[in-house]
Amino acid sequence: MGKISILIPFKSDHGPRMNAFKWVKAFYKNTFPNADLCVGYSETNPFSKSQAVNNAAKTAAGDTFIIVDADIICSPKVINDSVKRLNHTPWIIPYSKVAHLNKHRTERLLQTDPKWPLDLNPKDKITKTKKNMLPVGGINILSRPCFEAVGGFDERFIGWGGEDDAFAASLNTICGHYTRLPHLIYHLWHPALRAVGNRHYKANYELALRYCKAIGNKMLMKKIIREKNNLLK
């Protein structure tokens, strides 16, 4: 297993998101002491996850990328097992269940030591995402060459919405389809930002639709990738 880089895109709200991020960052630092921990920031307003991930990747030294949102916790064993699987599959989404901790449970967890297993009350009832509504973002595990083959994330996505689907579409087409594993990840509470309220929503939606229509068509997907790469020059 080569060196691992953990890429965390982040923008502070000087409140709940910052509190969650500090805990999550410490968690991955504690559970992966030899990993390259790279936090990426966005210069745009509203926040661009795409730009933040790409900025984190520019500072990364690892052969394997763990791209994880600043509010997501995943078992270290699941991550290590996923990295080993990259010998047999292009990229991995290591979960099939998402446990959403509410405000009270998140605040309580943030008072505990950032370690695994999580110090959660087993009596707590946790809301889980339905299988037919599972996202493709949250945490992605892939090789650095695979990330570079698709030019990273598309920074034309501004604000939330579409960037994860576009990234998945490009990886599935250029590198091969992901493997989704049957594990649970935890999502920490913070005030929600909705994609529909973003003034860039229409442009994001139309761009994501282009990616979706290009799935399976390498020539068309590479054309879209070249467009975004030209914008970054």
Automatic annotation (TrEMBL):
InterPro entries: GlycosylTrfase-like_prok, Nucleotide-diphossugar_trans. This is Glycosyltransferase. Keywords: Transferase. The keyword Ribonucleoprotein does not apply. One of its GO terms (molecular function) is transferase activity. Residues 37-194 form the Glycosyltransferase 2-like prokaryotic type domain. SUPFAM superfamilies: Nucleotide-diphospho-sugar transferases. Pfam families: Glyco_tranf_2_2. Gene3D superfamilies: Spore Coat Polysaccharide Biosynthesis Protein SpsA, Chain A (3.90.550.10).
